[in-house]
Design a protein that fits this description.
Layout: E1 8-16, H1 21-28, H2 33-41, E2 44-52, E3 55-62, H3 67-76, H4 78-87, E4 91-92, E5 105-106
Antiparallel strand pairs: 1-3, 1-4, 1-5, 2-3
């Protein structure tokens, strides 16, 4: 399987419900190993989530050759689905909906230092 020479950079934003912020942070202090493994299998690396008040910003790099297929594989994973059943209720959409139905909405890169 071929891999992209340069990773694709992806960034997303979502809100965290103030009353569930600590629950969300606690979950992420010990992300389940199965979730992390599935992300790696789907060619995701350098994944970070940052909190700024009640806003969450996520960044990751993708090195595979079929982003949509890999994201679908991650979404179909039973362990990842169970993880999302815990984390999704902590979140609220804050950006205009570009990815229909998704909480985390993609944001555009405006500058990159390489």
């Amino acid at each position: 399987m071929s891999r992209s020479a340069e990773p694709q950079r992806h960034a997303f934003v979502v809100g965290v419900r103030p009353e569930r912020r600590e629950e969300y942070l606690e979950l992420h202090r010990a992300v389940w190993p199965g979730v992390e493994q599935k992300l790696r299998e789907c060619h995701i690396s350098n994944y970070s989530i940052y909190a700024f008040g009640d806003i969450l910003f996520a960044y990751f790099e993708y090195t595979g050759d079929d982003y949509d297929a890999d994201m679908a594989r991650a979404d179909e994973d039973p362990v990842s689905r169970e993880w999302l059943a815990h984390t999704d209720p902590c979140q609220v959409r804050i950006a205009p909906e570009r990815n229909q139905g998704a909480l985390w909405q993609p944001i555009d890169e405006v500058w990159h230092l390489s």
